[in-house]
Design brief:
InterPro entries: AB_hydrolase_fold, Peptidase_S9_cat, TPR-like_helical_dom_sf, TPR_rpt
TPR repeats: 471-504
Helix content: 40-55%
Pfam family, one: Peptidase_S9
Strand order of the largest sheet: 3-1-2-5-4-6-7-8-9-10
Organism: Flagellimonas aurea
Structural class: alpha/beta
Radius of gyration: 31 Å
Keywords: Hydrolase, Lipid degradation, Lipid metabolism, Signal, TPR repeat
Largest sheet: 10 strands, mixed
């Protein structure tokens, strides 16, 4: 063989070996994501509960049997139990849960990769043996813990973001998730609005499930969703007052605003809690054309524009495409050569997404000042270059608190303790004005109804405190007492009215009648 040709072939062979070696080195792994876990060890439990208000059919049973809707619950939580003698979960342990949730419980483990979503490659096989930071069935840490309800992507597993869930649990959060399942079976129907409502009801089931645990702090509950899960979380927040924050991992509420509008429960003005949306990189022009994607997806965010009553954090991760906001996506998903970054860049950005999620939850649920500083800082001040993350923060519009708003709150508490209610509202809205005339009309409407007379008196007691020089209000209060048969208090308040306005003909006439 020609020496030069041999040397050339040898050089090419060595170069290919070099590329292959570097490709193996650059493969993703849990260790290389390098999440900085907190002080807690992580416990994990997985079990099945049932929603008896809905029915369900197993898609592969080929029978007409209807069962109660099964809700398969995965829960990550802090534990203080000694884990020295325990075996941590492997990635394969999580994928066995995937099998169960896909209703292929008896599928051999060696079929998992090629049976579901990911290629059966040596690199992916290697992921199956990786060790996680979670331990099965540990004791729960003591105390009341902030809780995050996680909603997966379209028809996805409860464990799709297990690394993020473990990370949050290690920092003191409980994370509860269930699979994203269709209304009637495992699969979604073509009716998006119906499926969004189904996911919302599953989330509300998990909120009630959290209520069974003594360690859950019910004053500190947040929602977190990836992709399709983001849509249903908006609906849940709209109709549940106990939700305190929302985290969206490239949630499709950005891309499918019209689907939200189809829900009778959706109202952008009801989003009144801190909201963080983390978006994928801009989709390249080539991909838009080849995949027939509307270019407006890169620029339009109708929900962001519509939110006026809460602070919105909007972040764009320039090294992440949609799949890589989940652990399974980072580890197993095929890379799109047209737009995906390198494995190391994807892992770094996933880590930053996890850090922003943690700090956002610490700031909003735990009122942690350091975490608040982190999410309020520009990425550059957090040590992140502009080429990695860009951020926008939109402040809530200044709210005008109306008399109707006051009346609704007063009605909610049966028109009791109105002075305290007024003072608490005034602390939040220093420019608050409650018109004298409105209070007078409301008080008269209530007091002349025998079923609400005492409520009307309460309104007038507040009114005379706010407007102590109003002869008309004391006159109305006196009329209320007279209607209720309390002549002594009627005389007392007609006299106050007459003292403030000696020309008050109604007070003069009433006093003459009452003192006969």
């Amino acid at each position: 063989m020609n020496t030069n040709r041999f040397i050339m072939r040898l050089t090419i062979l060595l170069f290919l070996i070099f590329l292959q070696t570097n490709s193996i080195v650059s493969q993703t792994s849990l260790d290389e994501i390098d999440l900085d876990n907190g002080k807690f060890k992580v416990g994990f439990q997985h079990y099945t509960s049932y929603d008896s208000t809905r029915t369900y059919s197993r898609v592969f049973d080929y029978t007409n049997e209807k069962i109660e809707r099964p809700i398969l619950v995965s829960i990550w939580y802090p534990t203080e139990q000694n884990v020295d003698d325990a075996e941590p979960l492997t990635v394969l342990d999580y994928l066995e849960i995937l099998k169960e949730e896909e209703e292929w419980e008896h599928l051999p483990n060696d079929q998992i990769l090629k049976w579901f979503y990911y290629q059966n490659t040596p690199a992916n096989q290697k992921h199956l043996t990786e060790i996680t930071t979670a331990y099965a069935n540990m004791e729960f840490a003591k105390g009341k813990l902030p809780t995050v309800i996680y909603r997966p992507s379209f028809q996805a597993s409860s464990i799709e973001n297990f690394a993020l869930c473990e990370y949050l649990a290690s920092h003191g959060f409980v994370v509860i998730s269930s699979p994203s399942r269709g209304t009637e079976t495992r699969w979604f129907s073509s009716n998006s609005a119906r499926e969004i409502e189904t996911q919302a009801r599953d989330t509300e089931f998990l909120i009630k499930e959290a209520g069974k645990f003594s360690f859950v702090d019910h004053e500190k509950i947040a929602l977190m969703g990836f992709s399709f899960g983001g849509l249903s979380n908006i609906i849940v927040q709209n109709r549940n007052d106990n939700i305190k924050a929302i985290v969206s991992l490239d949630g499709t509420e950005r891309y499918q605003y019209e689907s939200l509008e189809q829900s009778p429960f959706f109202d952008a003005e009801k989003i009144d809690v801190p909201y963080a949306h983390m978006a994928q990189k801009e989709i390249p022009e080539t991909v838009l054309k080849e995949d027939k994607i509307d270019s407006e997806l890169n620029t339009v965010f109708q929900l962001y524009d519509s939110i006026v009553n809460s602070k919105v954090h909007r972040l764009r991760f320039h090294n992440l495409t949609h799949s890589y906001f989940s652990t399974l996506g980072v580890l197993f998903a095929d890379r799109d050569k047209r737009q995906d970054k390198s494995d190391s860049e994807i892992m770094e950005s996933y880590k930053w997404a996890a850090m922003y999620t943690l700090n956002f939850l610490e700031a909003t649920l735990n009122k942690d000042k350091k975490a608040l500083g982190f999410i309020e800082n520009s990425p550059e001040n957090n040590g992140i270059g502009k080429k990695l993350i860009t951020q926008k923060i939109k402040q809530p519009q200044k709210q005008v608190f109306t008399f109707q708003d006051f009346n609704q709150l007063a009605l909610n508490q049966n028109y009791e303790n109105l002075v305290q209610l007024h003072d608490s509202i005034l602390a939040m809205h220093p420019s608050l004005e409650i018109p004298e005339g409105n209070l007078n009309v409301l008080g008269l409407q209530l007091v002349f109804n025998p079923e609400t007379s005492l409520q009307g008196i309460n309104v007038f007691l507040l009114a005379t405190k706010l407007y102590p020089n109003s002869s008309n209000l004391y006159d109305s209060l006196a009329e209320g007492y007279l209607f209720m048969g309390d002549k002594a208090k009627a005389i007392e308040n007609f006299e106050k009215s007459l003292k403030l306005n000696p020309q008050s003909q109604n007070a003069l006439h009433r006093l003459q009648q009452l003192k006969k």
